[in-house]
C-alpha cells in the first residue's frame, strides 16, 4: 500500500485538528502517508464558520466556507478531517451549484470561477476502498464505534453515501472487535459543552455509561469535538478511554513510532494499550 | 383584573400573519408541510432541556406565534446536529429553520432566553474576526468573564493546559483583512 507513488491531495484540517486535537491531525497524516497520499495543507485556510457563524449569521458562515473553497487548487480533491467542517464546506458548494447569484458574488469576491467539480472528501471516503489485509494487530481490543452526529446531514445532502459501519469494518479487520450499543450516533453536545455544561454533561455521561455497560474497553470516534467533549465532560466513576479513529488505524498499520499522542489524552489510554499488548509502537508508554 | 389577564393572554394569542412566511423565506425551507409527527422532537438529543421541542417550535411559527418562538430557549439549545432532519419524513431542514429564528431574534431585539449561549457564539465570531480561526483558550476566558463565571471549569482548563491541549497563542491566518471584510459585509453579504 505504501509502495504506491504518493497521490497528492489538498487538506483542510480545521481549527480543532490544528490546535486541541493535534494528536488527531498527526495520526491522520501518518495514516494517509501509509496509504499513499501526500497531504498538502490548504494555504491560509480559515475557520469554516463553525456552528456559531452558521447558527447566528448563516450568510457570514457561507462566505467563510466559500473563502476556503476559493483556495482549493483545481483538479485535486480536498480532504477535510472534521465532520462539522466538511458539512459546512459541502453545503456551501451545494448552494453555489444551485444559486446563480451566489456564484456571481463568489466570482467577483474571489476573482476566480467556482470550481463545481471540486471533490470534497471526508477521511472515511479515503479509507472506504482500501485493500484490507486481515491481521490481528489490535489484539481483540473491544471498542464502541462512536459516530456522533457526523452521519446526520441536512436534507439537501441526504443522497450522499453514508459511511455507517466503516469504523467497525476496518478495525475488525485489524483484530479489534466492536460492541453493539445504543449511542453510536447520539450527538455529543457540541458547543453546549462550553456554553451550557449542565445540559451537555448528562448527555456525555449517558453516552459513556452505555459504552461501559455494553462491555467496551474504549470508545472510538472520528470527530475531534466528540473526543474533547467526552474527555472534559464525563463525570462517571468508571470511564473508558476514547481514541481518535486515526490513532487506532495508526496502531493497526504500525505507523506510530515514538509519538506523544496518548499523553495528550485526559482519560489515560496507556493502561488499556498495555493490557492489550499494543505498546510496542509507542515508546512513550 | 379581568382586563389585565385578557391583555396578557390577548398579547400571547395575537397572531403575526407575516411571520411564518418571513421565516420560510429566510430559512429557504417551506416547513409549512410539517404535519406534527413529532419524530424530530423524539430524536432531538436536547429536547429534554427544551420548552416546546423542535416540532413545537415549528408549530408556533406555522401559527404565527412569533414572540413565543423567538423568545424560546429551544432555538438556542439547538446545536444544528441534524438528527431531526434525518428523522423528518418530510425532509425539512429544521436546523436551518432554527438558524433563521436565531438570526431573526437577534435582529428584532427580543428577549434572548439563553444569553450565555448567544454570548458564546459571539465570542467565537470575535475570535474568527481577529485571527481567521478560533482560539479556544481566549474564547473560553472571554466567555467566562462575560458570564461572571471566571472560576467555573478552571479544573478542566488546567488539565487541558497540562496536557498541552489548549494553545496559549492563536493559530492565525495571513490574509486576515479578507476575512474581516466578510464580517463587515463588504463582499456581498446579504442580510
How would you describe the overall organization of this protein?
The complex is a heterodimer of chains A (about 280) and B (about 190). Chain A has about 280 residues and is an alpha/beta fold. Chain A has two domains: about 5-125, Glutathione S-transferase Yfyf (Class Pi), Chain A, domain 2 (Up-down Bundle); about 130-275, Rossmann fold, CATH 3.40.50. Chain A has helices spanning about 15-20, 20-35, 50-55, 60-70, 85-100, 100-110, 125-130, 165-175, 190-195, 195-215, 225-235, 245-250, 270-275; strands spanning about 5-10, 35-40, 80, 120, 140-145, 175-180, 220, 240-245. A four-stranded parallel sheet of chain A has the order 2-1-3-4. In chain A, strands 6-5-7-8 form a four-stranded parallel sheet, sandwiched between helices. In chain A, α2 crosses α12 (about 245-250) and α4 crosses α5 (about 85-100). Chain A is globular, with a radius of gyration of 19 Å. The two termini of chain A are about 30 Å apart. The model of chain A has no long low-confidence stretch (mean pLDDT about 90). Chain B has two domains: about 1-110, Orthogonal Bundle (Fumarate Reductase Iron-sulfur Protein, Chain B, domain 2), CATH 1.10.1060.10; about 115-185, no CATH class. Chain B has helices at about 1-15, 20-25, 40-45, 55-60, 65-70, 75, 85, 95-110, 115-130, 135-145, 155-160, 175-185. In chain B, α2 (about 20-25) packs across α8, α9 packs antiparallel against α10 and α9 (about 115-130) runs antiparallel to α12. Chain B is globular, with a radius of gyration of 20 Å. Chains A and B meet through α3, α4, α6, α9 and α10 of A and α7, α8, α9, α10 and α11 of B.
Number of helices of chain A: 13
CATH third-tier fold name of the largest domain in chain B: Fumarate Reductase Iron-sulfur Protein, Chain B, domain 2
Radius of gyration of chain A: 19 Å
Please indicate the percent range of residues of chain B in DSSP E strands (runs of 2 or more): under 5%
CATH superfamily membership of the largest domain in chain B: Alpha-helical ferredoxin
Determine the N-to-C terminus distance of chain A.
Answer: 28 Å
Q: What is the distance, rounded to the nearest whole angstrom, between the alpha carbons of the first and last residues of chain B?
A: 43 Å
CATH architecture of the largest domain in chain A: 3-Layer(aba) Sandwich
Number of domains of chain B: 2
Q: Calculate the mean pLDDT score of chain A and round it.
A: 92
**Largest interface, Cβ cutoff 8 Å:** A-B, 54 and 67 residues
Write out the strand line-up for the largest beta sheet of chain A, numbering strands in chain order. 2-1-3-4
Structural class of chain A: alpha/beta
CATH architecture assignment of the largest domain in chain B: Orthogonal Bundle
In the CATH scheme, the class of the largest domain in chain A would be Alpha Beta
Low-confidence segments of chain A, given as residue ranges, are: none
Order of helices and strands of chain B: HHHHHHHHHHHH
Amino acid at each position: 500500500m505504501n509502495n504506491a507513488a504518493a497521490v497528492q491531495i489538498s487538506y483542510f484540517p480545521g481549527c480543532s485538528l490544528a490546535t486541541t486535537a493535534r494528536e488527531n491531525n498527526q495520526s491522520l497524516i501518518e495514516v494517509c502517508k501509509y496509504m499513499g497520499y501526500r497531504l498538502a495543507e490548504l494555504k491560509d485556510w480559515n475557520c469554516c464558520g463553525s456552528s456559531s457563524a452558521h447558527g447566528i449569521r448563516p450568510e457570514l458562515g457561507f462566505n467563510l466556507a466559500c473563502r476556503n473553497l476559493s483556495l482549493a487548487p483545481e483538479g485535486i480533491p480536498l480532504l477535510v478531517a472534521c465532520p462539522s467542517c466538511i458539512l459546512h464546506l459541502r453545503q456551501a458548494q451545494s448552494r453555489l451549484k444551485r444559486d446563480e447569484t451566489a456564484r456571481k458574488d463568489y466570482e467577483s469576491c474571489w476573482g476566480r470561477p467556482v470550481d463545481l467539480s471540486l471533490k470534497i472528501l471526508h477521511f472515511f471516503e479515503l479509507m472506504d476502498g482500501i485493500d484490507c489485509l486481515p491481521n490481528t494487530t489490535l489484539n481483540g481490543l473491544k471498542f464502541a464505534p462512536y459516530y456522533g452526529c457526523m452521519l446526520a446531514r441536512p436534507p439537501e445532502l441526504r443522497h450522499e453515501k453514508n459511511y455507517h459501519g466503516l469504523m467497525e469494518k476496518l478495525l475488525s479487520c485489524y483484530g479489534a472487535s466492536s460492541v453493539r450499543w445504543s449511542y453510536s450516533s447520539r450527538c455529543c453536545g457540541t458547543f453546549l459543552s462550553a456554553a451550557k455544561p449542565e445540559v451537555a454533561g448528562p448527555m456525555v455521561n449517558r453516552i459513556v455509561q452505555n459504552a461501559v455497560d455494553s462491555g467496551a474497553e474504549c470508545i472510538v470516534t472520528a470527530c475531534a469535538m466528540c473526543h474533547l467533549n467526552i474527555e472534559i465532560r464525563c463525570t462517571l466513576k468508571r470511564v473508558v478511554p476514547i481514541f481518535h479513529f486515526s490513532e487506532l488505524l495508526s496502531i493497526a498499520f504500525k505507523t506510530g513510532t515514538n509519538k506523544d499522542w496518548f499523553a495528550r489524552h485526559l482519560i489515560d489510554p496507556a493502561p488499556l494499550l498495555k493490557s492489550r499488548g499494543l505498546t510496542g509502537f509507542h515508546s512513550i508508554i | 383584573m379581568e382586563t389585565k389577564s385578557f391583555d396578557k393572554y390577548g398579547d400571547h394569542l395575537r397572531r403575526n400573519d407575516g411571520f411564518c412566511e418571513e421565516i420560510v423565506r429566510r430559512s429557504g425551507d417551506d416547513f409549512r408541510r410539517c404535519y406534527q409527527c413529532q419524530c424530530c422532537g423524539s430524536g432531538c438529543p436536547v429536547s429534554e432541556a427544551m420548552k416546546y421541542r423542535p416540532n413545537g417550535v415549528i408549530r408556533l411559527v406555522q401559527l404565527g406565534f412569533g414572540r413565543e418562538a423567538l423568545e424560546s430557549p429551544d432555538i438556542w439549545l439547538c446545536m444544528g446536529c441534524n438528527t431531526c432532519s434525518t428523522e423528518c419524513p418530510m425532509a425539512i431542514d429544521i436546523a436551518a429553520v432554527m438558524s433563521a429564528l436565531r438570526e431573526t431574534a437577534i435582529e428584532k431585539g427580543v428577549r434572548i432566553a439563553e444569553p450565555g449561549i448567544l454570548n458564546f457564539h459571539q465570542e467565537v465570531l470575535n475570535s474568527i474576526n481577529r485571527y481567521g480561526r478560533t482560539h479556544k483558550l481566549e474564547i473560553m476566558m472571554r466567555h467566562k468573564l462575560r458570564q461572571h463565571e471566571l472560576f467555573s471549569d478552571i479544573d478542566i482548563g488546567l488539565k487541558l493546559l497540562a496536557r498541552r491541549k489548549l494553545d496559549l497563542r492563536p493559530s492565525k491566518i495571513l490574509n486576515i483583512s479578507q476575512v474581516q471584510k466578510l464580517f463587515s459585509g463588504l463582499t456581498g453579504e446579504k442580510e
